[in-house]
Write a structure and sequence with these properties.
449 residues; alpha/beta; nicotinate phosphoribosyltransferase; TIM Barrel; 2 domains; 6-stranded parallel sheet; 19 strands
């Protein structure tokens, strides 16, 4: 079984509900929307990501013979339902915010309109895809905003990511949000993301002399000479780099920079910068890594630390301060009747909705959540992606989505760009409020019948 594309990568209750819908003949049109109920306390905004992987999943949704046989052998489902699943394909419509779009609580970033069984079946995988990449892109965006101007940011977190998918999607989401590239090699062929990498401390330790390690690496990678200098004594290693530079230069090899990975990075960077400059290595950059996040990046900027680039790893790829989003994919209409969940603490808005964004001198000034078909002031953010299960319109490249994300970040109000908590106005249209009241009255009337 191919895990990423398998419909069996789902929760059991999706299949048991489908069985119920099949028995009851419930196949009328359903509308589901994906949204985040509440922003985390330390997130002023979120960035939509993952739509392209979801589209690929939906376009190829199909149970394979071995999967159908496994379901049959499980004894949970009857033959008629297995035959029904064999023919099931996604034939619905999807509208979504473009990847890289910034959004806020209760705003649908994706809407699915499809026969009820299809719209229901995809719930778990849809959330699985969109939640992870959106969470990681939002963390990366904060790093992008907090980093010193013109810094090179690189995703260094594969080894601490929660699985292979998470590592690959972290590389993609961080690139979308403005990182220059990743150390995860597979992201190169998979997404065309630029790759960056140097060496590990083990490479230094494997040599008897630190200088020998530097020279071996430089001659093996003459176009990528970034040397890790904090294995033993950082400043002493910087002096060795200066001493080695003329010998390498004679053979046409230039030292591009050094990497720091431990200790007081800002202070080490100042000392190393003086050593490099005094040794005629003014062009060599200083790259830093080691438990970095947006707060550390902001500190480096405030301290004017002479660091040109940063490898952001564990805290990015695990989104350590916000390891999950309170997101949901909920039914908002079935068989032409608007629906809404009213559970305590989890109440939601009914109907097919659109999000409209207003601007003041090209800066975001407020959003309106309205019903589809309303025309309040502002730019509509949800647009068609799939119709009848097939892609419509232009499919943006990752590079184009990255440019869109950069434009979005440039339009953020200054208060939202800061790491301190700030709010953004999002209001509900009068028509949507009226529909919410009408749905509640309908539910109340049905309860007494």
């Amino acid at each position: 079984m191919e895990l990423q594309s398998s419909p069996l990568l789902t929760d059991l209750y999706q299949l048991t509900m489908l069985d119920g819908y099949f028995e009851a003949g419930m196949e009328e049109t359903a509308v589901f929307e994906f949204f985040v109920r509440k922003l985390p306390a330390n997130r002023n905004f979120l960035m939509a990501s993952g739509c392209e992987q979801l589209i690929d999943f939906l376009e190829n949704l199909q149970f394979r013979e071995d999967e159908l046989q496994w379901l049959a052998d499980s004894g949970r489902f009857r033959t008629g339902f297995i035959d029904y699943l064999a023919k099931l394909r996604f034939t619905g419509d999807v509208d979504a915010m473009p990847e890289g779009t910034l959004f806020f609580a209760d705003e649908p970033i994706l809407r699915v309109v499809a026969p009820l069984p299809q719209a229901q079946l995809i719930e778990s995988r849809l959330i699985n895809i969109l939640h992870l990449q959106t969470m990681l892109a939002s963390k990366a965006a904060r790093c992008t905003l907090a980093a010193p101007k013109d810094s090179l940011l690189v995703d260094f977190g594969m080894r601490r990511a929660h699985g292979a998918d998470a590592a690959l999607y972290a590389a993609r989401a961080s690139y979308l949000a403005g990182f220059a590239g990743t150390a995860t090699v597979y992201a190169g062929p998979a997404f065309g993301i630029p790759l960056y990498g140097t060496m590990a401390h083990s490479f230094i330790q494997a040599h008897d002399r630190e200088t020998d390690a530097f020279e071996t690496f430089a001659r093996a990678q003459p176009n990528n000479v970034i040397l890790l200098i904090d294995t033993y004594d950082t400043e002493a290693a910087a002096e060795k780099v200066v001493q080695l530079a003329p010998r390498l230069k004679a053979d046409g090899i230039a030292i591009k920079g050094v990497r720091l990975d431990s200790g007081d990075l800002a202070e080490h960077a100042r000392r190393v910068r003086k050593i490099l400059d005094a040794g005629d290595l003014e062009e060599a950059v200083i790259f830093a890594s080691g438990d970095l996040d947006e707060h550390k990046l902001a500190e480096f900027g405030a301290q004017s630390a002479p660091i040109s680039g940063f490898g952001i790893g564990t805290r990015l790829d695990t989104s350590s301060d916000v390891p999950y989003l309170n997101c949901a994919y909920k039914l908002t209409e079935y068989a032409g009747q608007a629906r809404r969940k009213r559970s305590e603490g989890k109440a939601m808005l009914p109907g097919r909705k659109q999000v409209f964004r207003c601007y003041d001198d090209s800066i975001m000034s407020g959003d309106i959540i309205a019903l589809e078909g309303e025309n309040p002031d502002g730019e509509p953010l949800l647009g068609p992606v799939l119709r009848g299960g097939e892609r419509v319109g232009y499919a943006p490249t990752l590079a184009e989505s990255r440019q869109h994300a950069a434009r979005q970040l440039a339009m953020l109000p200054s208060s939202l760009r800061d790491l301190e908590p700030a709010s953004y106005p999002v209001r509900i249209s009068s028509a949507l409020k009226d529909l919410t009241d009408a749905v509640d009255r309908f539910v109340a009337e049905q309860a007494v019948r």
